[in-house]
Amino acid sequence: MILLPRKIQRFIALNAIIIVLVLFIYQFTKLLIDLSTDKYVKNDYESLRNNRFNNVNFQNSKVQTDNSDTKYILSDSEFSSLFHKSMNTPLLYISRHEGTISNFKYISDYLNWNLTVFSPESSSKQWDELLSCLMKNNCGSKYEKFCREYNYIVISDIMLDVVPFLKIQNCKAKIITEITNRFDVFLKDNYKMEFHKLFKNAIETKKIIVVVNNPYEIYYLCRNGIHVPYYALIRSTGYPPKIQEYDESLYYHSEEPEKTIAIISRSKQDSMLSIPALKALDVPYEVLNTRYGGPKILSKFKALLYLPYQVSVMAMMENLREKIIYLLPSPSMFKRLLETYDEYTFTESSVFLDQSSSSESEDNNDISESKNSNKNINNEINNYIDSHIEGIDEYDNPIDEMEKRTEKEQKIKKKPIMENMLSKWVEWYREEFRDVFIYFEGFEELPTILNDLDNKEIINKKKDEIEKWVKEMERMTISQWLTIINSPYNNPILNKLHSPVDDVCKN
């Protein structure tokens, strides 16, 4: 072995030290600039699984759940027995939401039920009739007719529609409430108390069977003093509403959508965070309108960059059924976004706060929230026109309305978000969904992830995983509905259908 002269050794060592020092100074300076400008959210996850295109590694994170009880699929023999038993069952489905109607029609057709769909008029007049029924027992006679004609009545979307059936003394039909939104949505405070009392009594006396399409609805009921000891967590199949042929060029303009990232112009965080980040990273993107044309349009793009604004949306399952690839902020990144940006719009965000931290006066905030919640309710009812757009609550101008923040929502950002709450109540971060989403730790990771998605083998593998997951979820959903219809009351299977959430209402 030939030894180099000492002078050369010292020269090499000195230059190596200088190079390392320069690299350190560069990285440190870059970090300071990023932090001072708040240009990107910092990266704090240790690793990504499967070559960066599958999932974040959650093993060392705070978000751990046990979803062993959520999988319920009938065996072939059990399915066959219940299928023949429930064939041609007369069933009435009441909903204003096209997404829920399409989903239930698909399930009913699969199971050969005799389904009738009733979609109440979304108007102030019809709303006033329901409120009159709630407060004064002035309910229409058609509801008694429904009770006589059908074995089962499923009320979905707007739970106020269940009121007339709860006012009938002897309704022979079994009432199932499929809760896909806050159960008291659109109700002014002076009506909420009476409705809560009626709904609670219906659960305690087993007048209704409770089905939810996401676990947060049970937690919301609990926060309003209503404990639901038995319920079924049954998610949508994602079967989309049938829409007429339309000119696709009206919905997007990219010449190469397969190389482009889609962003739906739904909330302020898209214009505040996503668009500037993609511009800075030189990533091709297109901003689609709120009425974006559904999964058919999204399927043309490489992926959908999505910053959650709601705990759950109907369009999620519809898009997954079309094998849309979602790019989502990781749980801890999402947590930081909520804590950092007052303008970040996320409904129910106050639920996820660490109440042990210091906060502003709750009394003043509650007053402000009450005033805002009662504002323009009638306008919201008039404008509740269910169409194929992203989300549940719909407004005359959805984007402007969702940008409005109450005084309480602005103040609560001073408290930290409890990350473990996200894994329990937010669908985007629940364990059973993690295999279908791609999570990123910071916007700066997107070019690497998107570069991976340029590989056809990788993108096809991801879409195959999504398709497999959707098919299994559909089998679960159909098994669950078949079981509920055959044995609605006092059925121990309802315990199996539970989401693994805390029994907070028992304490």
Fold and architecture overview:
This protein has 507 residues and is of the alpha/beta class. It has two domains: 50-62 and 250-355 and 402-472, Rossmann fold (3-Layer(aba) Sandwich); 76-241 and 475-506, Rossmann fold (3-Layer(aba) Sandwich), CATH 3.40.50. Helix content is 43%, strand content 9%. It has helices spanning 6-37, 76-86, 98-111, 124-136, 142-149, 163-167, 189-204, 216-223, 268-280, 295-298, 314-321, 331-340, 362-373, 377-382, 398-403, 407-411, 419-425, 446-452, 456-486, 493-496, and strands spanning 90-94, 114-118, 152-156, 174-179, 208-212, 232-233, 261-264, 285-288, 303-305, 326-329, 437-440. It has a six-stranded parallel sheet, sandwiched between helices. Helix 6 links the parallel strand 3 and strand 4 (174-179). Residues 34-70, 355-414 and 496-502 have low confidence and may be disordered.
Tell me the layout of helices and strands:
Blueprint lengths: L5 H32 L38 H11 L3 E5 L3 H14 L2 E5 L5 H13 L5 H8 L2 E5 L6 H5 L6 E6 L9 H16 L3 E5 L3 H8 L8 E2 L27 E4 L3 H13 L4 E4 L6 H4 L4 E3 L8 H8 L4 E4 L1 H10 L21 H12 L3 H6 L15 H6 L3 H5 L7 H7 L11 E4 L5 H7 L3 H31 L6 H4 L11
Parallel strand pairs: 1-2, 1-3, 3-4, 4-5, 5-6, 7-8, 7-9, 9-10, 10-11
Helix pairs in contact: 2-19
